[in-house]
Design goal:
Layout: E1 5-12, E2 15-22, E3 31-36, H1 49-60, E4 63-68, H2 84-100, E5 106-111, H3 113-124, E6 131-134, E7 153-158, H4 166-174, E8 180-185, H5 196-209
Parallel strand pairs: 3-4, 3-5, 5-6, 6-7, 7-8
Antiparallel strand pairs: 1-2, 2-4
Helix pairs in contact: 1-5, 2-3
């Protein structure tokens, strides 16, 4: 069965949002996942290598995956809005994803800045089965306010992430409500250098072990 890949534009709150919808290669999708990319002012796009690995790990586990560019990135209209408008962009993208797969459970995943977006959005909406927060920047002073809800949360972080020191991440994680899981990857930097394969396997693994029918 050939893998379905569709380029599309989503009606976002600040204009059209460039997006890419992909389905698994070898099965019908069993869940739908929105994936959010890193900071747009530092080169983040939906084609970032970590975002690509997140999407591929999810597809291998059976997910239909929607990636998109925030406002002002590549072909997406609008301009950067300090994380406020970007949450609304993600909300609009999620609505499209859910309309495409109304019978499937849905979840959220994001890398770096994108992990902040999905934690915020996931705690604001109802119905998500899981949030996968990759490279969460725990060093930032306002990070402790994110993820304070009973939504299942999985954090996948490099042991040598310059934006997420081990003590900062552990303190943040310890203060979060359950259910939660923290996975360390023995990579050399924020972008999982020298360990992208191991990182992708972590994404695949947590998706495989999650009960999406509960």
């Amino acid at each position: 069965m050939p893998r379905r890949i569709e380029s599309l534009f989503i009606d976002g709150p600040a204009g059209k949002l460039e997006a890419l919808l992909e389905e698994p290669e070898d099965q019908d999708p069993n869940r739908a996942v929105l994936v959010c990319h890193p900071h747009p002012q530092f080169g983040g796009t939906m084609h970032n290598k970590v975002v690509y690995r997140i999407a591929r790990g999810l597809r291998r586990a059976g997910a239909a995956v929607l990636r998109f560019n925030y406002r002002g990135v590549n072909l997406s209209e609008g301009k950067y809005d300090n994380g406020v408008g970007e949450v609304e962009d993600a909300r609009a993208a999620l609505a499209v994803l859910r309309s495409r797969y109304p019978e499937l459970p849905f979840s959220l995943a994001g890398f770096s800045f994108g992990s902040r977006i999905v934690l915020k959005l996931g705690c604001e909406i109802a119905g998500a089965t899981q949030v996968i927060a990759v490279g969460f920047p725990a060093n930032l002073s306002d990070s402790e306010a994110l993820g304070q809800c009973p939504l299942p949360k999985v954090f996948i972080v490099s042991k040598n992430d310059q934006f997420c020191a081990v003590p900062a991440m552990e303190a943040y994680f310890d203060a979060l409500p359950e259910p939660k899981e923290l996975i360390w990857v023995d990579a050399t930097d924020h972008f999982f250098a020298d360990a992208l394969d191991q990182f992708e396997e972590a994404v695949y693994g947590v998706t495989q072990t999650t009960n999406f029918n509960s």
